[in-house]
Amino acid sequence: MTRVAVQQLAPVLGDVDANAELSLAALREAAGAGADVVVLPELVTSGYRFADAEECAAAAIPADGEVLRAWSQAAAASGMVVVGGFCEAGPDGNTYNSAAVVDETGALRAVYRKLHLWDGEKRLFTPGAEAPPVVDTRVGKVAVIICYDLEFPELTRCVALAGAQLLAVPTNWPLTPRPDGERPPETVVAMGTARVNRMAIACADRLGTERGLEWTGGSSIVGADGWVAAETRAVGMAVADIDLDLALDKQLTELAHAFGDRRPEMYD
Q1: What pairing do the DSSP bridges indicate for beta strands 2-8 and 236-242?
Q2: What is the 3-state secondary structure (H, E, C) of 153-174?
Q3: Which end of the chain has fewer CB atoms < 10 Å from its terminal CB, N or C?
Q4: By the 8 A CB rule, do 36 and 6 touch?
Q5: What's the half-sphere exposure (Cβ side, CA atoms, 13 Å) at 176?
Q6: Beta strands 140-144 and 166-170: pairing type?
Q7: Which residues are identified as catalytic?
């Protein structure tokens, strides 16, 4: 079993130093809980509701900078895999909505740049141009996408076909109306995505109200069977022990196979 933690936090808009300490405290807490993998929210280093591209760029940090080096040190000290969202100052001069994957040795294995920018993000960030990475770690193959990316089944299917056992999703879900007693719609999407792909999914959301926008606080961990193993609506951590080996077996019944029964020649 793999112990997966998602940290639901409330970063401060534009305060990189405070958010760095917030994220490091969250990593220490996850390590103390024995987590093998921990996922931090989207843009946890910066907050989200920027007024314009200039304000956003002012809060951006490089992938090889101090904050991610601190994440790497925390990962190495505890043997955890760390996935977290950050506002990236790209070496090309562009600003990206990005996520880092740091393995248990402390090595920065991948930086993923969000492909599908939501609404006003299009005025702040340059979209990514590369497919989500699928990284070999000590717990198995871990992939990462960001928030709105989860809404595109073409993308999540490609990640699953590439062998991902756990899909980490740093996210900021704006609060939207839903019937009483229902989970957030994005969690329902994660459940369906996990079930049809036989792939575990860990979504780290955020909380708080930022410039008038309230966040959902829907962090959840979904097993490869599609059922929620842990979730929280409060600031803090949700933890679940997940069997990632289930994601290696796509055989549904004796004659049904989740990937083998695909008919890609019919999907154009």
Answers
A1: antiparallel
A2: HHHHHHHHHCCCCEEEEECCCE
A3: C
A4: no
A5: 8
A6: parallel
A7: 42, 114, 147
Residue type, 51: A
- The pTM of the whole model exceeds 0.90: yes
pLDDT in tens, 169-191: 999 999 999 999 999 999 999 99
DSSP H/E element including 141: strand 140-144
| Closest to 42 (Cα-Cα) out of 204, 202, 239 | 204
pLDDT per position as a tens digit, 94-148 = 999 999 999 999 999 999 999 999 999 999 999 999 999 999 999 999 999 999 9
